[in-house]
Amino acid sequence: MKTPRDLSGRDLVKALCRFWDYREVGQRGSHIYLQTEVPRPQRIPVPAHKDLRVGTLNAILGSCG
């Protein structure tokens, strides 16, 4: 599956919270922090930019898996 080119940070946050059991725990500046306990505790920052770069999106998705 190809990586989407027009995904915003807020859209990625919604998708991770909806499908991957993440929850939003806060925001500091332009980054939204998500946390999950399944399968292990993990916290990831997601930039709240209008369009995420492909490399940034791939790095975030890679750390989720």
Succession of helices and strands? HEEEH
User: Which structural category fits the helices and strands?
Assistant: alpha+beta
Tally of contiguous helical segments: 2
Alpha carbon gap, first and last residue: 15 Å
Give your account of this protein's structure.
By secondary structure, the chain is α+β, with helices and mostly antiparallel strands. It has one domain. The protein is built from 2 helices and 3 strands. The protein has a 3-stranded antiparallel β-sheet with strand order 1-2-3, covered by helices on one side. A hairpin with a 5-residue loop joins strand 2 (31-36) and strand 3. The longest helix is centred in the first third of the chain and has 11 residues, at 9-19. It is globular and about 30 Å long. It starts with 8 loop residues before the first helix and ends with a helix.
